[in-house]
Specification:
Elements (H helix, E strand, L loop, with lengths): L1 H8 L18 H10 L11 H11 L4 H14 L21 E7 L5 E7 L2 H14 L4 H6 L2 H7 L9 H21 L8 E4 L4 E4 L1 H10 L3 H14 L1 E6 L4 H11 L5 E4 L1 H13 L4 E5 L2 H13 L6 E3 L9 H5 L3 H11 L4 E6 L4 H10 L2 E4 L4 H11 L4 E5 L2 H14 L4 H7 L5 H7 L3 E3 L6 H7 L2
Parallel strand pairs: 5-6, 5-7, 7-8, 9-10, 9-11, 11-12
Antiparallel strand pairs: 1-2, 3-4
Length: 450
């Protein structure tokens, strides 16, 4: 997290000289922070030759397009990545595309890196890191200040989108973490040792994962018997505890009408269960998820299928409640008074919110996986459109920042997101994209906020 934030801050600070090599491991964190915030610092010591060679190539690029092309050239420099190494343990999490990375020590004790991605741009960023760091000793590699190195490449938003930049920071952090493991400097905790006949968890997170992988067999059998005898289908949200998901996943091997997903897909799964003969659907999720299942079943002509929530009390959602506030009603009235307005509402809201909103201004529902394409499609399809997004303030701010950054990117990068847009069209839509300022999604703010 520290590394990603440091890199995102430095994207607009090209041309500054920052330390590439840490003076001492004991001050690693404070050195990285100073590197991202100071105006001009001289390297504490000479960077390794491969690192300096990569930097020199980027410093010779005088234009944004040249740096972008150089990143793509580095993708071509990566050797083929063995398919058998494209395993979950080699995935680099936090990248905009799928990326894999592994590290090993050769006979001379130097770190050898291999990497790949299903996106050429992400593969190019991986190629930059492999070219700069592969072949160094572990001590040399760990002495490289990752934030300063990435900053010195000059990869501003005109070259690499923030999501890609964050992915590069995550790849570099993964390289250094794997290097420490090669030196046995990292404690393997929490850990889950899987043998042929048992699981040995260490730490509470690992214990939860073990319960997911090895649920109580009696609970699974009882659940299957109950669901089968009463023809009950179960749709559950990913937020369920891993222990619960473990029981459900094991039961699904014997009773196929169990589905775990995000909120958008739950209702579609419920329809398929009903069409396959389930007379009842049990919803493991908050109230708006149950409402959505009920509405979609009715729309499909399956109103006789019963839908049950898991508690008699309200199962609330902070975001859904924000959309029922007076502030949000005023926000919708402002949208209704603006010509050519479209309200894009996040799915995590009640049916009442969606119905009231649609009575005031044309409304379309989205989720996090399609919100960018939904908004861009609206602007492409309706000239002079104003889009009002809500109620998730965190996501709205991210969208506004994304569109600001897209406005300065090459057209070909923008058209990866939507083929009908260019930098010019994105600049034109900026003043016509609105987002609600007072909506809190607790999960988004806890895990995604500063």
């Amino acid at each position: 997290m520290h590394l990603s934030r440091g890199f995102s801050r430095c994207l607009t600070r090209r041309g500054q000289q920052t330390p590439l090599v840490r003076a001492a491991p004991a001050c690693r964190r404070s050195t990285a922070v100073r590197a991202a915030s100071s105006a001009a610092l001289v390297p504490a010591q000479q960077a390794p030759a491969p690192v300096q060679e990569v930097l020199n190539k980027f410093h010779q690029c005088s234009e944004t397009k040249q740096r972008y092309q150089l990143v793509l050239d580095y993708a071509d420099s990566l050797p083929p990545y063995p398919e058998e190494l494209q395993r979950p343990e080699n995935r680099v999490l936090g990248c905009a595309a799928q990326a894999w990375l592994d590290a090993s020590l050769d006979s001379s004790g130097k770190v050898q890196l291999r990497a790949a991605s299903d996106s050429k741009l992400t593969a190019g960023l991986a190629g930059v890191l492999v070219s700069a760091l592969s072949g160094l000793t572990p001590e040399q590699l760990l002495a490289v200040d990752g934030t300063a190195f990435l900053q010195s490449l000059g990869l501003g938003p005109g070259v690499v989108a923030p999501s890609r930049a964050s992915g590069a920071a995550n790849m570099l952090a993964s390289i250094q973490r794997r290097t420490r493991m090669l030196m046995t400097q990292l404690p393997r905790f929490p850990s889950l040792l899987i043998t042929s006949n048992c699981l040995q968890p260490q730490g509470t997170f690992a214990e939860a994962q073990a319960q997911y992988l090895q649920p109580d067999a009696q609970q699974v059998a009882q659940l299957v018997e109950l669901l089968r005898s009463k023809r009950i289908g179960v749709v559950a949200h990913f937020y369920m505890d891993p222990q619960v998901q473990g029981v459900l996943s094991a039961a699904a091997e014997q009773w196929p009408h169990i589905h775990i997903s995000d909120s958008l897909v739950m209702a579609d799964a419920a329809v398929k269960m009903a069409q396959a003969g389930c007379s009842t659907i049990a919803v493991l999720g908050v109230d708006f998820m149950s409402e959505n299942v009920r509405a979609v079943l009715d729309e499909a002509g399956l109103s006789e299928v019963r839908v049950y929530r898991m508690a008699t009390d309200d199962i609330g959602c902070s975001l859904a409640e924000a959309a029922e506030s007076e502030d949000y009603t005023n926000y919708l009235h402002e949208a209704a008074q603006t010509p050519s307005s479209l309200h894009v509402v996040y799915i995590n809201t009640s049916l009442r919110t969606k119905a009231v909103a649609n009575s005031l201004v044309p409304t379309i529902t989205c989720t996090s996986s399609n919100v960018v394409q939904t908004v861009l499609q609206g602007f492409a399809q309706v000239p002079g459109l104003t889009v009002w997004y809500g109620p998730d303030t965190y996501m709205g701010r991210n969208l506004a920042q994304l569109f600001q950054q897209l406005a300065s990117m090459p057209d070909e990068v923008i058209q990866e997101l939507h083929p009908a847009h260019t930098a010019a069209s994105v600049r034109q839509l900026l003043p016509r994209f609105k987002h609600f300022a007072n909506g809190t999604c607790i999960v988004h703010h806890i895990f995604g906020g500063e």
